[in-house]
Amino acid sequence: MRRTGRGDLRTMRLTVTRDLLAGLLFLGLGGGAALMSSSYRFGTILRMGPGFFPVTLGLMVALIGLVVTARAIVAPDGSPPVGTIRLRPVLLVSASVVVFALLVERLGLAAAVAALVVVGSLAGPGLTVRGAVAKVVVLVAIAVAIFVYGLAIPFKVWPW
Question: So where does this one cross the membrane (predicted)?
Answer without folding.
Answer: 20-40, 52-73, 85-103, 109-129, 136-155
